[in-house]
Specification:
Elements (H helix, E strand, L loop, with lengths): L11 H16 L6 H8 L13 H25 L4 H18 L1 H8 L10 H21 L5 H23 L12 H17 L2
Protein backbone atom coordinates (compact mmCIF):
# COMPACT_ATOMS: atom_id res chain seq x y z
CA UNK A 1 0.00 0.00 0.00
CA UNK A 2 1.42 3.37 -1.03
CA UNK A 3 2.21 5.73 1.82
CA UNK A 4 0.22 8.93 2.08
CA UNK A 5 1.90 12.22 1.30
CA UNK A 6 2.53 14.33 4.42
CA UNK A 7 0.04 17.05 5.21
CA UNK A 8 2.51 19.29 7.00
CA UNK A 9 5.93 20.74 6.34
CA UNK A 10 7.93 23.15 8.43
CA UNK A 11 7.00 26.13 6.24
CA UNK A 12 4.30 24.76 3.97
CA UNK A 13 2.82 28.16 3.20
CA UNK A 14 6.20 29.46 2.08
CA UNK A 15 6.81 26.33 0.02
CA UNK A 16 3.40 26.66 -1.63
CA UNK A 17 3.99 30.32 -2.46
CA UNK A 18 7.43 29.60 -3.89
CA UNK A 19 6.05 26.76 -6.01
CA UNK A 20 3.14 28.89 -7.20
CA UNK A 21 5.49 31.75 -8.06
CA UNK A 22 7.68 29.34 -10.02
CA UNK A 23 4.69 27.90 -11.87
CA UNK A 24 3.40 31.36 -12.78
CA UNK A 25 6.85 32.39 -13.99
CA UNK A 26 7.12 29.34 -16.23
CA UNK A 27 3.54 28.84 -17.43
CA UNK A 28 1.38 31.79 -16.42
CA UNK A 29 -1.38 31.62 -13.84
CA UNK A 30 -4.22 30.18 -15.92
CA UNK A 31 -3.23 26.52 -15.65
CA UNK A 32 -2.35 26.57 -11.96
CA UNK A 33 -4.64 24.49 -9.74
CA UNK A 34 -4.48 23.63 -6.06
CA UNK A 35 -4.00 19.95 -6.94
CA UNK A 36 -1.12 20.75 -9.29
CA UNK A 37 0.46 22.90 -6.61
CA UNK A 38 0.17 20.09 -4.04
CA UNK A 39 1.91 17.74 -6.47
CA UNK A 40 4.67 20.28 -7.04
CA UNK A 41 5.33 20.61 -3.31
CA UNK A 42 4.83 16.91 -2.54
CA UNK A 43 1.90 17.11 -0.14
CA UNK A 44 -1.64 15.75 -0.11
CA UNK A 45 -4.25 17.45 -2.34
CA UNK A 46 -5.98 18.92 0.71
CA UNK A 47 -2.88 20.34 2.38
CA UNK A 48 -2.79 23.69 0.49
CA UNK A 49 -6.30 24.49 1.74
CA UNK A 50 -4.96 24.78 5.28
CA UNK A 51 -3.18 27.95 4.13
CA UNK A 52 -5.24 29.18 1.17
CA UNK A 53 -9.02 28.68 1.16
CA UNK A 54 -9.17 28.58 -2.63
CA UNK A 55 -7.20 29.16 -5.82
CA UNK A 56 -8.04 32.87 -5.88
CA UNK A 57 -6.55 33.36 -2.42
CA UNK A 58 -3.37 31.64 -3.59
CA UNK A 59 -3.12 33.81 -6.70
CA UNK A 60 -3.78 36.91 -4.61
CA UNK A 61 -0.88 36.00 -2.33
CA UNK A 62 1.42 35.55 -5.34
CA UNK A 63 0.33 38.87 -6.86
CA UNK A 64 0.74 40.63 -3.50
CA UNK A 65 4.25 39.25 -3.20
CA UNK A 66 4.97 40.60 -6.68
CA UNK A 67 3.72 44.07 -5.78
CA UNK A 68 5.70 44.10 -2.54
CA UNK A 69 8.87 43.16 -4.42
CA UNK A 70 8.30 45.75 -7.15
CA UNK A 71 7.59 48.53 -4.66
CA UNK A 72 10.68 47.59 -2.66
CA UNK A 73 12.83 47.83 -5.79
CA UNK A 74 11.25 51.21 -6.56
CA UNK A 75 11.98 52.56 -3.08
CA UNK A 76 15.60 51.43 -3.30
CA UNK A 77 15.99 53.12 -6.70
CA UNK A 78 14.42 56.35 -5.47
CA UNK A 79 16.57 56.40 -2.34
CA UNK A 80 19.75 55.98 -4.39
CA UNK A 81 19.60 59.50 -5.84
CA UNK A 82 18.71 62.95 -4.58
CA UNK A 83 17.88 64.30 -8.03
CA UNK A 84 14.06 64.51 -8.44
CA UNK A 85 14.22 64.02 -12.22
CA UNK A 86 16.53 61.01 -11.82
CA UNK A 87 14.09 59.54 -9.30
CA UNK A 88 11.24 59.79 -11.77
CA UNK A 89 13.41 58.20 -14.46
CA UNK A 90 14.37 55.33 -12.16
CA UNK A 91 10.74 54.57 -11.30
CA UNK A 92 10.05 54.07 -14.99
CA UNK A 93 13.14 51.96 -15.53
CA UNK A 94 12.41 49.77 -12.51
CA UNK A 95 8.94 48.93 -13.77
CA UNK A 96 10.10 48.19 -17.33
CA UNK A 97 12.86 45.92 -16.00
CA UNK A 98 10.54 44.19 -13.53
CA UNK A 99 7.94 43.55 -16.23
CA UNK A 100 10.60 42.17 -18.58
CA UNK A 101 11.93 39.82 -15.90
CA UNK A 102 8.48 38.75 -14.65
CA UNK A 103 6.05 38.92 -17.58
CA UNK A 104 3.56 36.31 -16.34
CA UNK A 105 3.65 37.71 -12.82
CA UNK A 106 2.86 41.21 -14.10
CA UNK A 107 -0.06 39.77 -16.06
CA UNK A 108 -1.38 38.30 -12.81
CA UNK A 109 -0.83 41.58 -10.96
CA UNK A 110 -2.52 43.82 -13.52
CA UNK A 111 -4.50 41.80 -16.06
CA UNK A 112 -6.14 38.74 -14.51
CA UNK A 113 -9.27 37.61 -12.72
CA UNK A 114 -7.88 39.45 -9.68
CA UNK A 115 -8.37 42.77 -11.48
CA UNK A 116 -11.28 42.12 -13.86
CA UNK A 117 -14.20 42.78 -13.73
CA UNK A 118 -13.38 44.36 -10.36
CA UNK A 119 -9.96 44.76 -8.81
CA UNK A 120 -9.31 43.03 -5.50
CA UNK A 121 -9.12 45.62 -2.68
CA UNK A 122 -5.67 44.42 -1.61
CA UNK A 123 -4.25 44.86 -5.11
CA UNK A 124 -5.99 48.22 -5.36
CA UNK A 125 -4.12 49.33 -2.24
CA UNK A 126 -0.83 48.27 -3.81
CA UNK A 127 -1.64 50.04 -7.07
CA UNK A 128 -2.63 53.21 -5.24
CA UNK A 129 0.62 53.07 -3.27
CA UNK A 130 2.60 52.79 -6.49
CA UNK A 131 0.63 55.67 -8.01
CA UNK A 132 1.27 57.85 -4.97
CA UNK A 133 4.99 57.16 -5.27
CA UNK A 134 4.92 58.10 -8.95
CA UNK A 135 2.79 61.21 -8.38
CA UNK A 136 5.12 62.34 -5.61
CA UNK A 137 8.09 61.96 -7.94
CA UNK A 138 6.35 64.04 -10.63
CA UNK A 139 5.54 66.80 -8.13
CA UNK A 140 9.13 66.80 -6.84
CA UNK A 141 10.51 67.00 -10.39
CA UNK A 142 8.03 69.73 -11.40
CA UNK A 143 7.42 71.85 -8.28
CA UNK A 144 5.86 74.74 -10.22
CA UNK A 145 2.85 72.85 -11.64
CA UNK A 146 -0.51 72.57 -9.90
CA UNK A 147 -2.12 69.40 -8.60
CA UNK A 148 -4.33 68.79 -11.63
CA UNK A 149 -1.41 69.11 -14.03
CA UNK A 150 0.74 66.86 -11.85
CA UNK A 151 -1.99 64.23 -11.90
CA UNK A 152 -2.29 64.43 -15.67
CA UNK A 153 1.46 64.12 -16.17
CA UNK A 154 1.61 61.16 -13.79
CA UNK A 155 -1.08 59.35 -15.76
CA UNK A 156 0.59 60.14 -19.08
CA UNK A 157 3.98 58.92 -17.82
CA UNK A 158 2.52 55.73 -16.38
CA UNK A 159 0.50 55.08 -19.54
CA UNK A 160 3.62 55.31 -21.69
CA UNK A 161 5.67 53.07 -19.39
CA UNK A 162 2.98 50.46 -18.78
CA UNK A 163 1.86 50.49 -22.40
CA UNK A 164 5.38 49.84 -23.63
CA UNK A 165 6.00 47.06 -21.10
CA UNK A 166 2.65 45.48 -21.96
CA UNK A 167 3.34 45.49 -25.70
CA UNK A 168 6.75 43.91 -25.12
CA UNK A 169 5.19 41.20 -22.92
CA UNK A 170 2.59 40.42 -25.56
CA UNK A 171 5.07 40.35 -28.42
CA UNK A 172 3.65 43.43 -30.14
CA UNK A 173 7.07 45.12 -29.92
CA UNK A 174 10.14 43.06 -30.79
CA UNK A 175 13.78 43.83 -31.44
CA UNK A 176 14.67 44.02 -35.12
CA UNK A 177 17.25 45.43 -37.49
CA UNK A 178 15.55 48.79 -37.13
CA UNK A 179 14.74 48.67 -33.41
CA UNK A 180 17.39 48.17 -30.71
CA UNK A 181 17.19 45.52 -28.00
CA UNK A 182 14.17 45.62 -25.71
CA UNK A 183 16.35 46.90 -22.86
CA UNK A 184 17.78 49.80 -24.88
CA UNK A 185 14.38 50.52 -26.36
CA UNK A 186 12.89 50.55 -22.88
CA UNK A 187 15.44 53.11 -21.71
CA UNK A 188 14.65 55.27 -24.74
CA UNK A 189 10.90 55.09 -24.12
CA UNK A 190 11.37 55.96 -20.46
CA UNK A 191 13.55 58.93 -21.43
CA UNK A 192 10.98 60.30 -23.87
CA UNK A 193 8.14 59.78 -21.42
CA UNK A 194 10.24 61.54 -18.79
CA UNK A 195 10.81 64.56 -21.03
CA UNK A 196 7.08 64.83 -21.60
CA UNK A 197 6.34 64.49 -17.89
CA UNK A 198 8.71 67.27 -16.86
CA UNK A 199 7.86 69.48 -19.83
CA UNK A 200 11.37 69.38 -21.29
Amino acid sequence: MASKKPYHKEDLRGDLLAAARGWVAAHGHLGLSMRTLAQQVGVSPGAPYHHFPDRRALLLAVASEGFAEMLSLSRVAVAATGDPVARLRELGRVFVAFAAANPHLVDLMYESELTTPAIDPLLLDYQLGAHEMLSGAVVAACPDIDGAEAGLRSIAYWSAIYGFASMVRKGVIRSSRVLPSAEKLGDAVVERALRSAIGA
